[in-house]
Design a protein that fits this description.
This protein has a single domain, classed as K homology (KH) domain (GMP Synthetase, Chain A, domain 3), CATH 3.30.300. The chain is 53% helix and 23% strand. The protein has a 3-stranded mixed sheet with strand order 1-2-3, with helices on both faces. The longest helix has 21 residues. The relative contact order is 0.19.
Length: 106
């Protein structure tokens, strides 16, 4: 990834974490694990993990509903000139890491 794409991804991940912490309904813990940006900076994917795992579907539905409001938040809180289209997905890699960690503890 180019330097600018890395900077944009880091800024998006930071602001998404702050926004979700402020706006979440507190029934689950939604954590931003990372963000990826396309090379043309027009699309971004923000990866989240959710605890408890039973709340994943509700949490991802919540963050997807918040996309428009998150874009408005970014307009006023970030230095990005152009905002990419943003999608939120569950970070499967994080779930796999947790599963491996649980297996190594037993």
């Amino acid at each position: 990834m180019k330097r600018r794409a890395i900077q944009v991804a880091e800024e998006l991940a930071h602001h998404a974490g702050v926004y979700l912490q402020r706006e979440s309904n507190r029934t689950s813990l939604i954590t931003v694990t990372r963000a990826d940006v396309s090379p043309d900076l027009k699309n971004a994917t923000i990866y989240v993990s959710v605890l408890p795992h039973e709340e994943e579907e509700r949490a991802i539905a919540f963050v997807k509903r918040q996309r428009g409001l998150f874009r408005e938040y970014l307009k006023s809180h970030s230095k990005l000139k152009f905002l990419p289209f943003i999608d939120f997905v569950i970070d499967e890699g994080e779930k796999n890491r947790q599963r491996v960690d649980d297996l190594t503890r037993t």
